[in-house]
Each structure stands twice: as C-alpha cells, then as structure tokens.
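question for whoever is on the cluster today: can someone run the full assembly for these? two chains, 596 residues total. i dont have access anymore since they changed the login thing
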Amino acid sequence: MSSLSRDDVANLARLARIEMSEEELVSLSNEFTVILDAVARVQEVAGADVEPTSHPLPLRNVFRPDVVVSSLTPDEALSGAPAQEESRFRVPQILGEEA
Amino acid sequence: MIHLSASEMAAKLVAGETSSVALTQAHLDRIAAVDNDVHAFLFVNTEGALEQAHAVDAKRAAGEKLSPLAGVPLALKDVMTQKGVPTTAGSKILEGWRPPYDSTVVTNLKNNDIVILGKTNMDEFAMGSSTENSAYGPTHNPWDLTRIPGGSGGGSSAALAAFEAPLAIGTDTGGSIRQPAAVTGTVGVKPTYGGVSRFGLIAFSSSLDQAGPCARTVLDAALLHEAIAGHDPKDSTSINAPVPAVVKAAKSGDVKGMKIGVVKELNGDGYQSGVRTRFEESLELLAAAGAEIVEVSAPNFEYALAAYYLIAPSECSSNLARFDAMRYGLRVGDVDGASAESVMNLTREVGFGREVKRRIILGTYALSSGYYDAYYGSAQKVRTLITQDFNKAFEKCDVMVSPTCPTTAFKIGEKSDDPIAMYLNDIATIPVNMAGIGGMSLPAGLAPEDGLPVGFQIMAPAMQDQRMYLVGAALEAALLTKWGAPLLSMAPALVGK
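^ ran it for u. tokens below:
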C-alpha cells in the first residue's frame, strides 16, 4: 500500500509552488492513499519487455523554414501583464538582496 | 428556427429564407432566456457575434462563394483562445484575461464564417467529468437541471441540448467531448490525435488533448470537423495529411459489409442496465443495416484508467507551471519586498481549484526522482499495451464500439467528494486518447429506468475518422426511424424567463 504523509505533500506542494493550508495538506495526504493504490495497478502489467509510449505520433524533429513571420507586438505581448514597466514585464524580486 | 440542425440552418441561409443576423439574434435571445438556469456560457459575445453575422450576410449579398456552415452560430469551449475575448479555461487564475491571439481552431472558424456566440463553461483546465470543477459554478443538464451535463465540456454539450447553439467546439483529453455528448443526448467527436491543431488550446495533457466538433446530428459534426481540421505549421504534432472525408461518410451512412467490433471489456458489470439495453438495441439496428457484429477483446483496457491518472497529471504538472503570475493572469501577494517565489505560491494557492491542485501534486509525485519508473514509466508501458490491443482488434473489425459511459447523468454534488468514483466515468472513453485514435459518441436513446440519454461510442483507427461517421450516420438514421423524431425533441422544455 502506497501513501503520502502530510510532510510528503508539503514538500510536493513546495516543489509545485503552491501554498497550502494545514487542512488541505492533511486531506490531500488522506486522498492520496486511495488514489495511489488505484493508479499503482499499472505496475501489474508494465513488464521490462514492454516499450514505453510517450506520444501517439512517431514524430521526430519537425522543422519549418527559417523565415521571419509576424508575431505579437510588444504591446500585445504585454496586454495581459499583471504589472509592466518600460515595455517589459515587471516581476517581483527574483534574487536575494545580497546577490 | 433554433431547433433546426446546423445544416438545415445553412440551407435556409443559402436559400435566403433567413439571415445570419436573424439566426444569431435568435440564439442570443434563447441564451438570454434559458442560460440563467443552464449556465452553459461563461461569456456571451453579443457584439462580436452580431458583427461577424453582419459581415457574412454582406458577403452573401455580394455573391461571394461561402463555406457550407457560413453564417451558422457556434459555442466555443473556454479553453480555446479568441483574440480580445475573455478566456479562462474555467479557472480563477485566468479571470479577466483577454488573449492577444486566436487559436488555430478560431482562425479556421472565422475563415469559414462560422459565428462565435461566446465561451462555454468547463471543468477548470478541462480536469473533470461534470463541470463541477469550474471556478465559475457548475453547468446544468437541460434534461434535468439537478444533474451534471458531463465534463469537462459540459457547457458546450448543454448549449447544444438547450438549443442555445447548433454547433460547439470541445476538447477531449480522456472523454471531455464524448462523455458530455452521451449524457446530454448530443453528438461529439474526438478526431484522431493531430487531426485538429492544438495551437491556442490551453494545454492540459499535451499528448492526449484533442479538439473536436460537437453538434446535434452526425452530419453537422462532420461539417464542423472539416471546417476545423487540417495541418497547422504552428502545431508540430498536427498531421500533415488530407483530412478524412467525414462529410461524404456522414452523407452516405452505408455500413453494408462493415465489421463492427464490440469490446468485451467495455460492457457488462458496472454498466447501468438501461445503458446496456440501449447499446444492445443499437447493435441490432446496425446489424439490420447490413453490418456484421463481432466480439473483440482488449485485455489491457482495464489498466487504462490507472495509466491515464498518471500520464495526464504528470503532463499537467508540467503544463500548468506556466501559470506563474509573471506575464499574464492573476497575481497575488505582490507587496513590497515579496519574492517572486512567494508571489507564485500565493497566486497558485488562490488561482487553482481543488482538483487542479490534486492533479498537479499527483503529477509532481509521479515524475519525481525515485518514483518515475514505478509510476509515469509504468503508465507509458500500459499506453503501449493499449495501443497493441487496439491494433490487434482492428485486424478483426473496421470500428470498435461500446457504451460511451457506464451510467447516465448523475446528480450535481453526488460524486464531487469522491475522486475515484468521478474518474470511473471515463473508463470507456480513455483508451481512445491513450492510443491517439478517433472516437465518437452519439445518442442511443433513453435509459428506461431514469429517462436520461445514453451514448453509443464508435472508435476508429488513426486517420480513419470517416468510418465513425459512416457507422454514426447509419445508427442515427435507424434510430430516427424508430423514434419518429430526434431524441432532443423528447427533452423537457426549459421554461426560462
């Protein structure tokens, strides 16, 4: 039986950049016990001799001609920005003060 | 006028018996009258739709050659970008966003002069089977407003069943076109993967997502299919080959000599008795139309659901990383001195709903070092086994068939606290996505025990989509003869305002 503890879920939430309340961490960890049992069934038939499939189409390196085509203008690209400054996306601090 | 099929509406437009403006206005009036109860739409683009309708009427008056569906209105699932029109994918994180570009599906619709009425409700980021996961509240099934209209494309299916639009666009990752069609008595088609461009389709699970046509008749679905399908240089996974001749097939409906494979594993235990009754009856009608019914087996289908709930969350955990509060969409907690990471964490906490978070966490786990092989890797192997099952079965038959869903529409709220019970809805639709082939659902009648619609699913090999339309048209014609009127004419009238 697979399970995820409350701390496991907290770590995954941190990796996935989602803040979670204590209530949410605990209830998700309870749900995952059931969900992981259900999905772990794939291991019953996934033998070493079976090739994995990542995609339905056997595509490789799809190229297009190296020609400049029209794209979004800076104004269009910025039209949904939560904040902007001097035709750029304004974002919160990414590096620490000392960096 | 709103009760006609799309092709009948198109014929009236050609004959000059009505105009696109009148037709569009009639649907806008219908939306205004009933959508408070149905809640199929998240945004009604009154001005834009009428503008498009005026333009197509002018082109027709000028004698321009127009496409078969020119001037006919359509409802667009809110997962498709449309330039300048609010697009949310059912999520708070995109509330108020107006995309700066058209998806290729929208470009194709516009090039065909199909009038886009507005954006339809859906489970957040297409994750769900009931539209209950929409951040903007559930859609109600026009057959019974206390029941779900399916999902994730419940807004599109409900709009069709409520005569708010004769055509709609859906997307299908694990059944999000076909299951809503089944539970609302409408037609929905998931084309072969790569048949319709994904450019501008807000990605959930990229190796499974596929847009397709929703309608009230098989021919209408075929006409819409041809309007939106085809190679797109902006989507490197779109197939560079001619679109299957689906309209021709829908007009023919000749199944004489076709072999129809009944999937042994997608019937029986777990399927509601009325679903089985209608399915068996459909098989008899197809046999009477000259098809040969054979049984085929797909032993690995029983693992499809488990594999899907690893592959789709894994891909979504990666795809939804783009909602980082930096370039568009919601931004929360951007106070002086707040780090980008804390803004991301807070934004995604508020912006994503419960099911989306559940799947992101599951996907993050399935892809994490130490668990990758056991979960995501094993699921990819199951995907191979399912494809092999299809290939073997298609050696014995031209199409495969099953009930679309195990049950008819359930009550809103009935399964929302039980993710596993909810996931079981998709048991018969998911194998098609795993193999990247085509699938159609069309109405097979009403279950005697509850009087609710039952869907009949047809599956065809990759790029043989026309076979689904042949069989679908044959069954639709036989059922119409039996019923004497389309199934939706038996739905209760919506009182509205």
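summary bc i know u wont read the tokens: Chain B touches chain A through 72 residues (CB under 8 Å). The first helix of chain B runs from residue 6 to 14.
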